[in-house]
Amino acid sequence: MTHPTILFRDDLQTTFGPLDWLPEPDGTIHRFHVPGDKAGSLNGWYVLYLDGIASGAYGSWKAGACHTWSSRKPADPLEAELIRQRIEQAREQREADQTRRHIATASYAGTIWSKAQPADPEHRYLTCKRIAPHRLRQRDDVLLVPLYADGYLCNLQRIAADGGKRFLSGGRVKGAYSPIGTLEQGQPLYVCEGWATGATIHAETGAAVACAMNAGNLLEVGRQLQRHYPDSVLIVAGDDDRQTEAEGKGNPGREAASKAAAVLGCGLVLPPFPDDAPLELSDFNDLANWRAAQ
To answer: 179 — phi, psi (to 5°)?
Structure first.
């Protein structure tokens, strides 16, 4: 009979792909590298129990999903309750571990931010995007984009000269945003994806912008903004991923922006691309730079 640890790993592999290690069945949260993720990252987590009915849970910090597993169906209500309690315990452990990681990363972000210099307006990324640095800072040749949540600096997005972007590992992203301009009650407020897009919107409208960093974060950032600035008119400024749509892969930017605006009950704007605009252009910064080059 196959050992439950092997069966649990088999279930992990159906979600994450081949794994060359065996889970530790000690009832505590363990982190692991998810195949295909950035080298050195530990986005995966699991917890496995062998006493009583073998059961466990696992997921990915990055993907956000949580999967449960048991070696067989519960034989009675007591076993079913045991599994339920274990899943709840795993959730509590996972949230506590995530909170510790968020706190540690926020502290590290504050240290880096306090020692960094104001961004050079001639930084290659800024000149390529034709945007002002606003309140960005710089460490060596890397731009630092501050992300705030609940009023505190919680993470940094680092932008290299070639445009490569990375967050600090373990830092909060969900619900966090980078503000451009002054967010004020009663004044129009935009929420968009990338920082360059936000800088372009601010330059063209004069309005404050909250940069959510990715399409999947628009809704959560919008919720936070509505809580903190209930008297402001909120507008979701989405990307329009026309190229992926033309390739039959959907339009994640437009879909996420449309969904966020519908749930929030707020305005929605998308880049007004003319018919002759190249399909690889997807956001307001792309459109502004293309127009400037005509």
So the answer is: -85, 145
Question: Shortest CA distance to 201 belongs to which of 269, 258, 292?
Answer: 269
pLDDT in tens, 176-214: 999 999 999 999 999 999 999 999 999 999 999 999 999
Helices and strands counted in the chain (H then E):
8, 14
Locus of tokens 């190229």: 243
State the Cα–Cα distance between residues 80 and 74, nearest whole angstrom: 5
Tokens of 218: 């628009």
pTM: 0.80
3-state secondary structure of 55: strand
Q: What's the DSSP call for residue 88?
A: H
Instruction: State whether residue 123 is helix, strand or coil.
Output: coil
Strand, helix or coil for residue 9: helix
Q: How many CB atoms lie within 10 A of CB 22?
A: 12
C-alpha count within 13 angstroms, C-beta hemisphere, residue 71: 17
Find tokens 């980078």 and name the residue. Answer: 178
DSSP state of 51: S
